[in-house]
Amino acid sequence: MLRLRVFEDQSTRAYRQGLAGGYLHVYTGMEATAIGWLSSIEKGDPVITAYRDHGHAMYLGCDPFNVMAEIMGRSDGMSRGKGGSMHLYSKEHSFYGGWGIVGGHIPIGVGLAFGTKYKGGKEVTHCFYGDGAANAGVVYESMNMAALWELPVVFIIENNEFAMGTRLEYHAADPELHKRAEGFGMDHERIDGMDVLSVRKDAKRIIDKVRKTHRPYVVEVMNYRFAGHGAADNDQSLYRTEKELEKAKKRDPIELIEQYMLEHRVITDKELEAVRLEIEGEMEDVFDRASKSPKPDPEEVYSDVYSDMLPEKGH
Ligand SMILES: Cc1ncc(C[n+]2csc(CCOP(=O)(O)OP(=O)(O)O)c2C)c(N)n1
Ligand SMILES: [Mg+2]
Fold first, then answer.
1. Is residue 303 part of a domain?
2. Does 296 map to a domain?
3. What CATH number did the domain enclosing 200 receive?
4. Three-class SS state of 61
5. Which tens digits make up the pLDDT trace of 19-67?
6. How many Å lie between the centroid of ligand 1 and the Cα of residue 267?
């Protein structure tokens, strides 16, 4: 969680210094959700998410250097600099993106779960999306298919209470988004997304159930984003007060787990400081190395854009 927090500070620095083009959406404040959840999955379980994707990719094993290089559009980037922050992807780590169209990746997540069922596999697909995305029509077409065909997929709503600058209460007829599963006869619940240990525990229980029953599940994880919607969101006063933000920061997921570890004598203040310094050094180095990675060859613009999908070609 700390590595991700510090990585995001460095990715924001890259954007501010003009080293990262396009869009940049950081996960700051929401760390306990992805990290708690992904710590409970099995290796090989497909994971798919929207554009707030740096943490998911890194936790699944993608090297922060390749992630940062991608954010900077460099040849060492995971998509060789063609995708940027929103389009991380690593089949090797069962990470299927990184998608910029709100709600657009949810049918793809259901397709991954269909693939598992078709092949008789044991994997569970973890499909993350935001509270705003929960309003997209395609989510409900996807949920219907998942429930009808009994597909092993968990719909994980990362409810950070905002869709860009629109508050949850202004965009959702019923702000309890998990209840929307009821129309499809799916199990559902809302959980706390700021305490990493409770996310991990809830995730284990839910994932075990989905893996056993092969029935989809909707879980709404309540968290809060501390940063702006994207790096270009400079006036948050249009949609939230400083006071609200300060209140949310009282449950900073990193501070919560630090307190827990100190209270339970898992770590000392001194050790914690050493971990912090080590991570800061690591991410500083990631930034420096990524900024030195060569820009892609102009020819790269044509590679991997179209694909010949004929099976005899081995795809
Ligand atoms: C189909 C579509 N409509 C609009 C947008 C512009 N847009 C980008 S992010 C966003 C809000 C999404 O909010 P949420 O799903 O809650 O995700 P969060 O940013 O909070 O993680 C919108 C409307 C888009 N990318 N795609
Ligand atoms: Mg949101």
1. no
2. no
3. 3.40.50.970
4. coil
5. 998 999 999 999 999 999 999 999 999 999 999 999 999 999 999 999 9
6. 39
